[in-house]
Backbone:
């Protein structure tokens, strides 16, 4: 009976492609309490995985009032970006176009994207949005890093005529 197990073990070993021979376990004694161990190797490649979730994908800012035109700006709370990453990450922001899209008779067709300013701090540090990606934040692997943004829109009595204006803001999450 011992020869039968050895023969089966040889058949199994011969059935494995060359270069990947299986280990064959033949117990020293065929006893009910006997055991046999074979070691194998398991591997996995884990890629960089990133996820960016925005608190909103369509934000409507409040219309400016007389005081906003007098001040030249109106501030608003922007979106919150939530980053999940298993590696270091960089969050960037840019405008999809150099000018806002204007709709309506007499609406300003050349309102620059820089009239939308952004900051990570409410009330200070605002930067005009351009079509070139700007660094917003970065970090290391995280289950959830929240990045709050604040907006400020520039208004001018003589240039910002009535109409509906929109601007696509692009957020990009990368790894170094």
Residues:
């Amino acid at each position: 009976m011992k020869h039968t197990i050895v023969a089966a073990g040889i058949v199994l070993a011969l059935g494995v492609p060359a270069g990947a021979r299986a280990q064959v376990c033949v117990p020293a004694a065929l006893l009910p309490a006997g055991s046999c161990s074979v070691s194998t190797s398991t591997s996995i490649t884990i890629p960089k995985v990133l996820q960016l979730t925005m608190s909103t994908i369509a934000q409507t800012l409040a219309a400016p009032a007389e005081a906003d035109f007098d001040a030249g700006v109106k501030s608003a709370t922007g979106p919150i970006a939530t980053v999940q990453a298993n590696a270091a990450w960089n969050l960037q922001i840019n405008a999809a176009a150099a000018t806002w899209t204007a709709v309506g008779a007499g609406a300003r067709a050349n309102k620059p994207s820089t009239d939308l300013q952004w900051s990570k701090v409410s009330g200070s540090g605002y930067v005009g949005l351009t079509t070139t990606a700007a660094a917003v934040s970065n970090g290391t692997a995280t289950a959830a890093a929240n990045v709050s943004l604040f907006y400020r829109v520039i208004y001018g009595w003589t240039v910002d005529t009535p109409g509906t204006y929109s601007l696509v803001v692009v957020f990009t999450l990368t790894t170094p």
User: Anything to note?
Assistant: The chain has a mean pLDDT of 88.
